[in-house]
Amino acid sequence: MNAKAQHDWFAVADLGGGLFKIHEPHVHRFFRANIFLLHGRDADLLIDFGMGLRPLAPLVSRLSSGAPLIAVATHSHADHVGGFHEFAERRAHSSEAAVCATTPDSETFAAMFRALDAPVTIPPHPDWRRDQYRIAPAPLDVALAEGDIISLGDRRLEVLHLPGHSPGCIGLIDRENGVFFSGDAIYRGMLVDDLPHSDRTVYRATMARIAALDVAVAHGGHGDALSVQEMRAVALGYCA
Ligand SMILES: [Zn+2]
Ligand SMILES: [Zn+2]
Asked: Which of 234, 189, 196, 198 is nearest to 213 (CA)?
């Protein structure tokens, strides 16, 4: 497979300011998640990793600023950690560490993807078979906690623990620039709070917290970005 075909699996949008949004347009919409690459002076940050149906690392190295990469998973569901194993310096919340290390179907929900009528609109490889789809284990190098700072030199991202959708969901907030990467805690579209490890009571507390955040934009785990007004409307709507 040539390099162009590899890259065509992913769609890339340059959002400006050293921020790139990547997604997999050929993946079923339920599992079509966002991947963000943020350039920094001393390190680049990659947030989430797609389904792992094709290698993500070649695209990321093409888009890289040249600085070392820090890889952060917002949580350990299949649509966010499929390509996590391709990267070093892996970080996620401590509550997701065990799942990242062993990636059991029951916790990543990869089986749900395999069971879809049309998990992909085109096969990622000519010989791809859905029944062989698995998430490769990606043990963490760093277990994150609420309040941790990820420094890129010229930008600081603070870890917010935002449980509810899953126990160790996190968001990353750049308070100085008003940018919030919210993972699956909040995004544009139908939120999921009915997984076996979801917790609606805890999720409501997370949403109350999100509604009070002072940011300009929220980049969610799925769909287009939310303005602060849209983000607050979704969060307060959930709490109502
Ligand atoms: Zn999720
Ligand atoms: Zn997701």
From this structure: 234
